[in-house]
TrEMBL record:
Keyword Signal: yes
Keywords: Signal
Domain of life: Bacteria
Domain VWFA: 27-206
Alphabetized SMART domains for the sequence: VWA
Protein's name in the database: VWA domain-containing protein
Gene3D superfamilies reported for this sequence: Hepatocyte Growth Factor, von Willebrand factor, type A domain
Length: 319
């Protein structure tokens, strides 16, 4: 079954480029946010507890031959931007020992993302192997540094370094922009997780090298319809939910349908069905919501489909 990540529109529209975080026998470091904000709760559970459980799930499928290290920040002192610790250098996996170290983290302090990722890059550079950082953070940099600038610096240095970033319950604003830029600057992926299930799937995807396909949405696709995959249920969203049809007057156009979707915050994609299709004598505008897999169906002249700008088309097989 295909599942969506972080509320983005899951899709099987085209053949997309794939990324793999940890399948080549290289070295990785997990950078965990242990700042004070990780005491915040989701569904009545502290975020730090959810993160610990997600790491435990990730380790069950960690690739053989892939070394893993651990860096944490904000776990020892309040208000100290130097509170960054290399807890475990990259080494062959011992899940019990690794989990013991993760479970021992206390959440207290600041969010020095930039310095933490720099430390990870320095450690991985010394291994002279393909280097991957997996960063899990729930907030923006709070120590007068720029994760985006660091990503560009590392990429320009020529080091074989990739940062995959998971934004966990991120607020709107600078935090998302910083972390997106860090990932994209190093050729990595930025994934968002709003709850325990999404964090589990995001960590599993970047660590086990599952094929996660990402493509920027196309806003205008002539001759096609965008529809939900039939017969599947994705994260509790049935194939029949989240979609609605608006019957247009005969003079309404595909541009009107696109405008209808753009004005509706719950709409992720749309398609325009012209007069005469399926024996109807008026056009129809189909609006699709977020959270379930979509298919792009060829139709013909007069049909147009599209997806909002900024929405990602993502496919993550889980079997």
């Amino acid at each position: 079954m295909t599942r969506s990540i972080s509320g983005l529109l899951a899709s099987a529209l085209l053949a997309f480029p794939l990324f793999s975080a940890a399948t080549d026998g290289g070295s990785s470091i997990l950078v965990l946010d242990a700042s004070g904000s990780m005491w915040g709760q989701i569904g009545g559970r502290p975020k730090v507890e959810i993160a610990r459980q997600a790491v435990a799930t990730m380790l069950k499928t960690w690739p053989a031959g892939q070394s893993l290290g651990l860096i944490a920040y904000g776990h020892r002192r309040k208000g100290d931007c130097a509170d960054i610790e290399l807890i475990q250098s990259p080494q062959p996996m011992n899940a019990a020992v690794f989990l013991q170290r993760v479970d021992g983290l206390q959440v207290k302090g600041m969010t020095p993302i930039t310095a933490s990722v720099r430390l990870a890059a320095e450690q991985l550079k010394s291994t002279e192997r393909k280097a991957t950082v997996i960063l899990v953070s729930d907030g923006e940099e709070t120590c007068k540094a720029d994760p985006c600038a660091l990503g560009k610096e590392l990429e320009a240095s020529g080091v074989d370094f990739t940062a995959h970033v998971i934004g966990f319950d991120l607020p709107e604003g600078p935090a998302r922009q910083q972390l997106q830029c860090l990932a994209s600057s190093t050729g990595g992926q930025f994934l968002e997780a709003r709850n325990a299930g999404e964090l589990n799937r995001a960590l599993e995807a970047v660590s086990a090298g599952k094929p996660v396909a990402v493509k920027t949405a196309e806003q205008w696709i002539p001759g096609h319809a965008l529809e939900w995959s039939t017969g599947e249920q994705i994260d509790g969203v049935s194939a029949e939910s989240g979609a609605r049809v608006i019957e247009f007057a005969v003079d309404r156009t595909a541009q009107d349908c696109q405008a209808q979707c753009l004005a509706d915050t719950s709409c992720a994609g749309w398609h325009y069905e012209p007069t005469g299709s399926f024996f109807i004598d008026y056009p129809r505008c189909h609006l699709q919501g977020y959270g379930a897999p979509m298919t792009l169906r060829p139709e013909g002249e007069g049909w147009v489909a599209g997806v909002k700008a900024g929405v990602k088309l993502i496919r993550v097989p889980t079997d």
